[in-house]
Amino acid sequence: MHKSSYARMQWFVENYCNSPERNLSVLDIGSCAVNKEDPLQTYRPLFAGDKFSYTGLDMVAGPNVDIAVKNPYCWRELEDTSFDVVISGQVFEHIEFFWETMKEIARVLKPGGLLSIVVPGPFGVAYHACPVDCYRFFADGMIAMARYAGLEVVHASSAAAPQNAPDIWYETRDSFLIARKSEAHQPPDMGNYTFEKPDLEELRNGFIPDNYENQVYYDMFAVRIDGSGTLHELKNLEMVNLWALPDNRFYIWGTGGQYELHYQNLVQRSRPKNFIGFLDSNTEIQGTELDGYPVMAPQYCAQDKPDVIIIASHARKEIMESIRNIMNK
């Protein structure tokens, strides 16, 4: 489990689950401890003690699973309005039809009950199938999930943290939802649904967003190399997908200030499997490593034939001309 995900769930518990009057029943969706070597593999320790009654739910039996449901979208094993709190972390990106899951969550929550979900945001976590990896969520998406289930949004944020929070909160750019089931809960009538634009600043509840990476993607520059050696500049969405999906093998041309400014943080944190290494014309650093990846002469890409080359340099025109000459030899 990501440390940033654990930090958000801990914040939720400390700020919303501190009722001294009664024991709170807690349901954890996707609770299986799949990585035994991870000290933060489950949220169960956050709900230890007499204040809570914790139940882990998953699709299959395993460590930290109390209930293995037969149907992931129809939990016949659970009665209506049976839990005070429902939580889920780093799971919804793997659920094919998460909107159906949201309806089941609304069904099993007690009136007045709370929901807390942590999921990867668009810029923080690379593709990781378990067994599939379907989605990334902005704050708008978290709000839409709650609305679809007829839940009231208490908090929604993406890549944001409380003031003075440690840097770990920004590590994987998580999106975070807290929602409540009202006493008079009614799912929306989609045939008569009227859109209302959410106030994202208000729903962040004072959390401070980190817009660094949003800007980074706009500042990046890369070219795709087609079969004929022609170069095509990547659009912003293609740049996001380049880092999030393993479909295209790529180099970064340049190891100096532009790399440090725009790309080093992404390389060090996400460790993309489709990133081959660096190209640099400086013969003194060729054959060395940077951030765990090899630094090679530009000519090397002619035999390796990458799909994309990111240009981390102000000399874009000159480097593009060099790429054309190398690839067309």
Automatic annotation (TrEMBL):
Domain Methyltransferase type: 77-116
GO molecular function, one term: S-adenosylmethionine-dependent methyltransferase activity
Gene3D superfamilies: NAD(P)-binding Rossmann-like Domain, Vaccinia Virus protein VP39
Keywords of the record: Methyltransferase, Transferase
Origin: domain of life: Bacteria
GO process annotations (BP): methylation
UniProt-recorded name of the protein: Methyltransferase type 11
